[in-house]
Amino acid sequence: MNTAETHDLITSNENLGVPPKPSKAHQTACDLNPLSQPQEIHSMNTYEQKQAERKERYEQLAQKAESDSLATLDRAREMSSWIPPGQPILIGHHSENRDRRFREKIHNTYGKAFKESEKAEYFARKAASVGTGGISSDDPQAIEKIKAEIEHLRNAQDQMKKINAVIRSRRGDEDAQLDGLLALGFLTNEQAKEILTPDCMGTIGFARFSLSNNNANINRLEKRIKHIEAVRQRAPVEIKTDNYEYREDGDENRVMFIFGGKPDDATRTVLKKNAFKWSPRRNAWVRHLNNAGIWAAGQVRKALDAQ
């Protein structure tokens, strides 16, 4: 059977607290990700609240753009109705120029309606994407959430190993293999039978790369925890000059430049060239606090100090 599908069988058992999936046809290997599973209900932290507000803001912008698009489209249609069907521009007539300008205005009004519709679709996509990028290092509970994901993956790893061990120990006897899988206690009869269904290569159970990939994800997440801990434990840096203030803020997870007012064109060019973005909330130009961000900040400081 397909390896991605067998992953789903493991992650939908009761021991992991995951309810049965409505349709296997809609299951993918990403179901191993605990973020896609029901989580314990808790009040939102500050980061989650900001994400919710951001999503709501995009939704409101999408609704406004859609409303503006429909209103503009109605206006364009009404303007078009003032010209009789098939009515040509009367060349040489005193109304020619006025007629051309009016038709051009109709054309531009339709164009504006379509642009507003595209804007509505853009903001709708932005709203839908909020919170779908995994666990952000900006989240105060990032470490706890990553640890929960690691535990989920370790449980899946252990279960995959147990299933493969049962299949190997009872090779050639499908009934015995089925009984052995059911005896593990975390598979339904349907799931166990599906695991024993050969894939396109004629193999059953979990392929070796499934376990190695899952283990690699565990190692990657453990390294990420160490990185987040190092950033949060990092001593804050604050450097003030006559032209700017530079900070490395572990709580904000940002390197940032603060200016007394709007920086000049040359300064903004240097900041943008080094991937710094303006943050109205922080009133600063910022990047994530990591090795790349610190290096980029060094390049900006060199350029600014040389001015």
Gist of the model:
By secondary structure, the chain is an alpha+beta fold. The protein has nine helices and five strands; from the N terminus they run H-H-H-H-H-H-H-E-E-E-H-E-E-H. A hairpin with a 4-residue loop joins strand 1 and strand 2.
How would you describe the overall organization of this protein?
The chain is α+β, with helices and mostly antiparallel strands and 307 residues long. It has three domains: 49-83 and 97-129; 141-231; 235-305. It is built from nine helices and five strands; from the N terminus they run H-H-H-H-H-H-H-E-E-E-H-E-E-H. It has helices at 3-11, 46-81, 96-129, 142-169, 174-183, 189-195, 208-233, 265-273, 291-305, and strands spanning 237-240, 245-249, 254-258, 277-279, 284-288. A five-stranded antiparallel sheet has the order 1-2-3-5-4, with helices on one face. A hairpin with a 4-residue loop joins strand 2 (245-249) and strand 3. The longest helix is centred in the N-terminal third of the chain and has 36 residues, at 46-81. Residues 1-39 have low confidence and may be disordered.
